[in-house]
Amino acid sequence: MTKKQRALGLLIVLFPFVAFFVSLSIGVVHIPLDGVLKSLLSPIFPSLKQGLPENYLGIVLGVRLPRLLLALLAGAGLSVSGASLQALSKNPLVNEYILGISSGAAFGASLSIVIFRQSFPPQISAFVFAVAAVMIVLLISRNSDSPIVSLLLTGIIVSAFFSALLSLVEFFASPYALQGLFYWLMGNLGWPGWGALSISLPLTAVGTAGLILMRWRMNVLSMSDEEARSLGVNIRREKLMVIFLATLVTAAVTSVAGIIGWVGLIVPHLVRMMVGVDNRRVVPLSAAMGAGYLILADDLARGLASSFEIPVGIFTSLIGIPFFILLLRKSKRIWL
How far from 35 is each of 24, 25, 52, 130, 298, CA to CA, in Å? Predict the structure, then answer.
């Protein structure tokens, strides 16, 4: 790495930590940074509660902390999944939802919200159907002569199938249930809370860590199959492991936060523009940049208006797409 790339890499690593701490003070109720720090440390040092407004603890520890932890995990997980699947498929247009995860999760959530009226938790229903969609894709494409191409095409077909089922559920939904479903589909970090985070956090953390540990193998998997076999790599096993971990992360995030688009597509490309295409750097740095990126998008979602909150999925597109187009015009090479 050049000195410039090392400096950019260091900034990317520091970015989510700074954004996380500063974002704890942002919201309808502004909390000074020293108040944020005292609130975070008060469970360990109870003496810090003296002189601290009573609502600070509830806002920081009960509302903003779980929300920002979810943003941190979701941004990191979606970005790492997107970067891993791009390396695996050797396709710059692949994202973390390409295997039907988002449409499967959306259909599962719609069944819970519209049909069962949340008597069955939408998080569990969304997770089950997201995993089911990927399993269907793998079963259909398992015997193909061109497994990656077949995998991507089958993913598109399965996505269309579940999207059609989702449209059918929406057609019969009541206006009230339809409003709740649309709000979920747009992506939202506000309502899950500590309960949903406790379910999503272990799965997302394990899957993200697993993909980061496999980052050096992704350089091998991005070669031709003949070259990878000559290096002693079990291609089928390694590819299935990457797909399994990416599915686990994306399904866990989507089940609690809804569909947050463009993170897994845009962030890995931005990282490649800054530090090169070596997956040993791209994958972990994508986690850091994705985490910070989603935290900033969430800051805009809850900070622009005091009377209502805009779903964060809208901001990930509004921020990411123009920024990506700008960098694409300036950079002549983002993939190879």
Answer: 10, 8, 7, 40, 21
pLDDT above 70 (res 298): yes
Rg (CA), the chain: 20
Amino acid, single-letter form, for residue 45: F
In a domain? residue 336: no
Task: Dig out the tokens for 77 from the structure.
Answer: 């997980």
User: Does the structure show a pLDDT above 80 at 48?
Assistant: yes
Q: How many Å apart are CA 278 and CA 275, to the nearest integer?
A: 8
121-140 residues labelled b (16+ CB within 10 A) or e (exposed): bbbebbbbbbbbbbebbbeb
Instruction: Report pLDDT for 330.
Output: 66
pTM: 0.92
Q: State the total domains in the chain.
A: 1
- Three-state secondary structure along 43-71? CCCHHHHCCCCHHHHHHHHHHHHHHHHHH
128 is written with which tokens? 């089950």
Q: In the block, which residue shows the tokens 């000074």?
A: 32
Give the span between the Cα atoms of 36 and 23, in whole angstroms. Answer: 10
| 113, part of any domain | yes
Shortest CA distance to 138 belongs to which of 165, 104, 91?
A: 104
Q: Is residue 335 part of a domain?
A: no
What range defines the domain where residue 197 resides?
3-330
What whole-number distance in Å separates Cα of residue 214 and Cα of residue 49? 44
- Please, which residues have CB within 8 angstroms of residue 269's CB and are 6 or more apart in sequence? 92, 324, 327, 334, 335
Distance CA 252, CA 292 (A): 19
How far is Cα of residue 257 from the mean position of the Cα atoms in its chain?
9
pLDDT in tens, 98-116: 899 999 999 999 999 888 8
> Distances in Å between the alpha carbon of 195 and those of 114, 252, 264?
22, 13, 25
Q: Kindly state the tokens that stand for 219.
A: 């350089």
Q: What is the mean pLDDT of residues 14-34?
A: 93
Mean pLDDT of the chain: 89
Give 98's Cβ-side CA count (13 Å radius).
25
Structure confidence at residue 60 (pLDDT): 94
